[in-house]
Amino acid sequence: MNVERRPARRYNVKLEDLNQPPATPVPGQRCGLVAIVGRPNVGKSTLLNALVGQKVSITSRKAQTTRHRITGIRTLEDTQYIFVDTPGFQTRHSNALNRNLNRTVLSSVADVDVVLFVVEAGRYGMDDAKVLALLPEGKPVILVANKLDKLVRRAELAPWLKSMQERHPFAEFVPMTAKRPEEVRRLLEIVRPYLPEQGWWYDEDTLTDRSERFLVSEMIREKLFRLTGDELPYTSTVVIDKYEEQGRLRRIAATIIVERDAHKGMVIGDGGERLKRIGTEARQELEKLLDAKIFLELWVKVRSGWADDEERLRSYGYE
Length: 319
Prior knowledge:
Elements: H1 15-18, E1 30-37, H2 44-52, E2 70-76, E3 79-85, H3 96-109, E4 114-120, H4 126-134, E5 141-146, H5 157-167, E6 172-175, H6 181-191, H7 212-228, E7 237-246, E8 249-258, H8 261-268, H9 273-290, E9 293-302, H10 310-315
Parallel strand pairs: 1-3, 1-4, 4-5, 5-6, 8-9
Antiparallel strand pairs: 2-3, 7-8
Helix pairs in contact: 7-9
């Protein structure tokens, strides 16, 4: 999907900027929070990137890729959309990491103006139902039936939508494919009336409230998951050890944390080839994303049980 290039300088928003009250409303201006929720692997992060018009959230086929509350911002004409991408609600594991992810989901939907409940078009299972049951009453919920292009029998869509309407009083039904720009624009137009009339919270060219340092760790983790496939368990993470800015140069050292020695071998690969490829692909994408020269060093360390250790989770940046 081709996306509009945006100035890299607005990836790194100063903390003091985020604490400022909303600007004085301009007549006709709208601004509001939109939560993107759903079970793992329904395309929430892909949808967020499409709605923002730039990559701010990592994607992969591995479940539980998104682990943090990611905010993406899109300003179009008189409206500023503040999208909150959430981790997929976890129902199959009960370690500290998954409890942390579920708390993130619940806290993210508490104060938003509208919720995008994302499911795969034509599908609805127990995991989807558990997420839907968590949504607070009284908030407008838009059903986003994503991956419409993968629905084999389009004739089944109408009765499926009717069955979904019986499950919940959805404000809108939007069958779509997140990779199609015209359908993304249509979704933005549908969301707009649900946002309150008020001044924008961010500058017009801001893309996210996350720092460059955070985006770097996420990009490395994306390449880690994509290049190890199903070999590596989801309990691995990335910690930034050094992040130095020198003009358009970034000097970065990062550590990939895994739980077992065998996992360390999977990440490094024969002769270090896989680790080298992870670093190369992360560096190349980061240079495009941040419009900067990147020097990246990667290490791999074993930290057994980290995903079930609350103290280590906090030290690794999990809220």
